[in-house]
Known about the structure:
FAD/NAD(P)-binding domain; alpha/beta; Ubiquitin-like (UB roll)
Amino acid sequence: MPRLDPAATDVSIELDGQPWPAKAGEPVACSLVAAGEPLFSRSVKYHRPRGAYCFAAACSSCLMRVDGVPNVFTCRTPAREGMRLERQNAFPSARLDVFAVTDWVFPNGMNHHEMFAGVPVAQDVMAVVARKLAGLGQLPDGPGIEREPARVEHVDLAVVGGGVSGVAASQALLERGVDHVVLERESFIGGRAAYGVPESHGVELPLPSPRVRFGHNVMGLFEDGGGRFLAVIASERLLKLYARRLLITVGSHPPLPAFGNNDLPGIYAARAVSRMIRRHRVLPGQRIAVVGEPGEAARLAGLIESCGGEPVAVGLEPVAAHGLGEVSAIEVKRQGETLKVACDAVAVASNGSPAFELARQGGARVVFDGARFVVEADGDGRTAHPGVFVAGEQTGPCSVRESQERGRRAAITLERTP
Ligand code: FES
């Protein structure tokens, strides 16, 4: 039983015309997983089955057509009564997609750019077929909704991200009387402290900061005649936030290590599993293989066990996943041997890859530290751009406590930096 509170569902949604139970307000992707449906769509080229992986709008594996609008992140879209979901890129259905034959016929990949190139007639036919098959989803059913013009605001300091480091920074700034705003896309603060894989030592949720603006999703950093501004989506409306200084604390993305069939539905990032359990009371399977980085895997296994699940293959190196349409077993390495372990979900533990995109846009340098790309900054969060500071996991993996400390240090430095 994936839902730890079975009575939690309170609305009905529609998936490819069939009714499914869901819980109002939780990400609709989570509702589908809780209802036992990990298959969300098919991939663009080889029509391989797709399911949610990161639950953080960072992998695009959960895109579906929602209420007639294509390519919607279902891991970020709250479920509500009557919501219509359609799986994309499949004919006649995602379970039995005839175009999946492409994956069988070209097991070593296909160079569609040169296929039939130079062959009279065939190349023209191929161009038409490729055009029909290319792209993801279909155009919306109707015109988009009218939106109000962008709102404009000017601040001195914007903290992007209300996770542990962002909130710790905000508290340090408040203590010092430094005016600022904190932009948080979720409806709660605390990030990893609130839903991450539990740390080996206890972690307290950060104290709330009155400067946090919830539901503020920063899309990027742009420039116009008025200077540089953050493009922020807030309540379906664009906010152009001109900030003289930025402290970026947007954490990291969960990478997906390379192993065979690592894209099968039912394979999730460890932090996605942790989020489903801790925020939404959903266990994505009964027998869950928790592979990858041993420390995080062991801690997640403890959480799964405490909810009545059965963690297997804990901390072992994944070699290949198996399953038709969704994962049903995983091959792992143990003491030089390969063994196959049956499971109904896989959680992949790994150190996060810094979400450096915004800092990079802001003028910070991004460097390879031997294992991953990180934002280059000194111990106080200063980057190559004098108006851009970073904290938390932006400069590499760290514990929640270290993340808080980095946030505080960056805030203190900001106070002293005009
Ligand atoms: S983007 Fe939604 S699961 Fe990754």
